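Why this split exists: single-chain examples teach little about how molecules sit against one another. For that reason, every record in the complexes split bundles all components of an assembly together and asks for one structure covering all of them. Below is a record exactly as it appears in the raw files.
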Amino acid sequence: MTSTTEQTTGTTEQRTADTEQPTGTGDQPTGTAEQPTAAAEQPAAATLLRFATAGSVDDGKSTLVGRLLHDSKSVPADQLEAVEHASRSRGQDAPDLALLTDGLRAEREQGITIDVAYRYFATARRRFILADTPGHVQYTRNMVTGASTAELTVVLVDARNGVVEQTRRHAAVAALLRVPLVVLAVNKMDLVGYAEETFAAIADEFTAYATKLGVPEVAAIPISALRGDNVVEPSSHMDWYGGPTVLEHLETVPVGHETAGCPARFPVQYVIRLQTPEHPDYRGYAGQIAAGSFRVGQEVTVLPSGRTTAVTGIDLLGESVDVARSPQSVTLRLADQLDVSRGDLIAPTASAPAVTQDIEATVCHVADRPLTPGARVLVKHATRTVRAIVKDIVSRVALDDLSPCPAPGSLAANDIGQVVIRTAEPLPVDGYADSRRTGSFLLIDPADGATLTAGMAGHAFAGQAAEEPAKAEDAEGWDF
Amino acid sequence: MTSSTAVAEEVGRPCVLTHLDALESEAVHIFREVAGEFERPVILFSGGKDSIVMLHLALKAFAPAPAPFGLLHVDTGHNFPEVLAHRDRVVAEHSLRLQVASVQDYIDRGELRERPDGTRNPLQTAPLTHAIREQRFDAVFGGGRRDEEKARAKERVFSLRDEFSQWDPRRQRPELWNLYNGRHAPGEHVRVFPLSNWTELDVWQYIAREGIGLPEIYFAHEREVFLRGGMWLTAGAWGGPKDDEPVQKRRVRYRTVGDMSCTGAVDSDAVDLDAVIAEISASRLTERGATRADDRLSETSMEDRKREGYF
């Protein structure tokens, strides 16, 4: 288990060979953190951070999101004007920044958030894609959806209430989805007199809990979203806090954790064939590298057939390269004329995954109709979709206290549980702990195509997988 | 699952793409997913910047082979001639198949009626959905971006439409990881938005990086325009100006191109890509807020049109 609250993991952000000239002349960085030295004269092109927010209804999540967007000058004037107009017509004095993120008619009419919305903002250092997940009814599946593509989750806590059941649930979902970075934003510090002890107690309790779940890194920041303390601007009320603001942290935290733990994986999406005078016999396998890197000359195995060949060429969207890495979309050319098609997986022969027809997985059920043992489903794994049957629903997890309920009979919407799936064809499934890309899958209803379930192969929480059997309560609780 | 020793070489070497490379890789992945899973995909292509970028990405995704998609243009009949000329140039250059679904034909046949305000954008829905039904398209690529508009912020990358092409935001499928679910019943289709995660600035930076050609109306030029509803509209046979709308010559450019009757120009001196990027970076208005009358019809006009089948 990794220790918590490390500022960095020791790896430096690796710049790509493609040194694009940043052309943006937009917002200046609001934070004052030091420039990376090598980048001082010719800053590297902006990177992209995808993050999600989690918070229950009254924690002030909308206010935080609104303030992040507003104070980083990412709300265009016409949108702000529309929000001000709508707020006035409801009799509110101040613009209700929550209206920025509630875009649908029903949401505005009922004052609720129906669904995940994606927001975009940028500073000079980084572009952000924010999955803004609602804290309401359909809670867990929305957070799972938002967290599935996120590298970082901001968990909001009300400083007056401290770590509550909902907070533990947020931490559990972030851990379950293996979101590598977690920020604990202790909000409403203005209502507890900006007291350091209050913050420290909450940060310690949360960090201990998240560590137990296997969250590798927690950064705790005391904020007041309403007053703007430590969101974009440093607070003048909390001199005892020496860390970054929320935005500064988002701007500077190292990214690229996605596939650091898995050997190379290449799900074949599409076969490109061509016979022209210029390309007399072109046959390439197009796909996005799901993990690791591939290089020309490397010996690879094609699964499920198990045949072995070598990479003779890598085309990076029209340009020939020697090495390519996740998450680049490339086209691989192979030495032998093998029968390779969509759904196959190419991996280094030395570290090819095993194929299996029996998948043990932790799942989050996202459909309203329940999931029951014996259900005939489709499994979509990487680029392959196969028929499958739900053999067993082993347990259901209570996310508030993490207690497993054995043999629950079925999983309802928003339930998290451990299941066993038997597939009609063998699949090269990695553990989700090793690869979020090749360890994840969907269960789909073959009748109407509805997405039923989000699946993560292997054990539920990092803290319990492959570690020493540790304390009795852990082994008992988490060894599914 | 493999032993950890075999992977030591790769471990701890995160690859950090620039934001443009990350967005490009994601869009290419989306194009290839559709090519792999659908029978009859088509790209909506208007000759505007988003569809031009979308086509550029599609061509890159399958190079050196041609993109396995045809193009469909829903022509309002009120297009900027420069944009149509550019559209035809691009189609010829890449030997693409282009179909045109024409709003004017529907009006001439009496199947659609001109609106009192002269705006034809909402009229595109009927020719679009008819073309989809007739040609049995099962995947329809659109250049929509989530940053454009609040209803679009809730849109999926793969957006299932029923047999009437309707969008129901409450019945959207959760979209998890990059596992796009394209399953659909006969008669249904999927709208696919490869540029979902791009912003207007990303599009311009990508155009600059890739050296993509655009219709010249995106750059500042002298133009005869008149003021209507707070926007500079181009005079033309489509119905403007009225007698009380004096025409002026102004130095303008377009941030978005659509139907001439509802797409406004902005005052600008930006004659090249660098200047356009600088202008957009500094702008405090969204491209739709600045220049699209159809979105000002009501607070939820985009949502309402999308529910009816609009892109």
